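Show me any protein, keeping tokens residue-aligned.
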Amino acid sequence: MNKKASLKLIADNFISPVNFAQPKDGSGRLFIVDQTGLIIIITEKGNIISEPFLDITHKIVRLDKQYDERGLLGLCFHPDFKNNKRFFIYYSAKTRKESPTGYNCTNYVSEFTVGKNLNKADPDSERIIISIDKPQSNHNGGDIKFGPDGYLYIPVGDGGGANDSGFGHTKIIGNAQDITNFLGSILRIDIDTGSPYSIPKDNPLVNKEKACPEIWAWGLRNPWRINFDSKGKNELFTADVGQYLWEEVDIIKKGGNYGWNIMEGTHYFDPVNPYVSLSSNRDTGINNEKLTGPIIEYKNANTPGGGMGHAVIGGFMYRGNKIPELADNYIFGDWSSPKYRSSGILLCAKPSYKDKIWSFDKIDIDNMPDGNINEFLQSFGQDNENELFVLTSKKAGPSGKTGKVWKIIPS
């Protein structure tokens, strides 16, 4: 039986809201990341501050208004932001001088600080932490988060294109299986020591010859929204957007290889014949490490016979108090249902650690037609009270002013 909830409009008139953050500074402010290069503040009273907290539109690579996966994609505040005023962003810019010829863009993780005006970042304080060159425009990841260990986690897509093959992709094995580059991985770094960072000593590839010691886990296609459970075991969840046939959600663990492009979900993937899904005939990666399967999977709308949606959107374990019906469920969704254009879906899964694959239900939104969002689902957010938010847009690309921020409330 489907769960029920409602959506309450918090703010609108954004172009393409893709990320949400709230610092633990007692201000009650919500920070909304617009893909076009803006970070906008919603005050504790629900008012939008007209002047952006940060404007890096001039740094962002020129975006395709019809559809684009690049842009300003991530924001997180230092755990001690209240005192040190440090925060971090992830964004796509033009290629740099060091980029390989023919590459599409360079993704940066940068640090900024806030001055005396707490509602305004210092635009001249940027310190680049990591630069990641990408051959194609899609599959950027970018939802950076601090873990309970105080380290910064950085999800990175496989480089883009399709099949994790072709120009800019490691031959035969693909970027996601290649631990000598950052692509298709989740990185873990210490930004409180080193210049500009240091490698935690317990990272799984430390001292492994030729491997990137920043890598925490690999074998991912396009990790779109990562989040730590605020309670329990503080597990790290990520949705990994599938290609043509399967969408998946993973629990990320140290040294995990999540299968791409050997597997799509729990199914064997053949880059030469990507439209045919087979039962996996392999359970080890290129370096003979055991592959880790997803906790949730479902059919993409491109699957013969049809599936649930087009792209999985990662969410949060619900640890709030306002909606008992959703308590202790993993809340996630899909960008758009297969039947209707711009009609995102909310989903929930109850953890079942005895089963490899968790069952899940649709959340019927009782104040929306058909129980769907009726807009593209871009992302989720979580405030300091562990209540959840939904970021949407009626446009598939970064254009117009149809972006909205909603709060999930009881039915």
Summary: The domain at 14-306 is CATH 2.120.10.30 (Neuraminidase). The helical segments are 81-84.
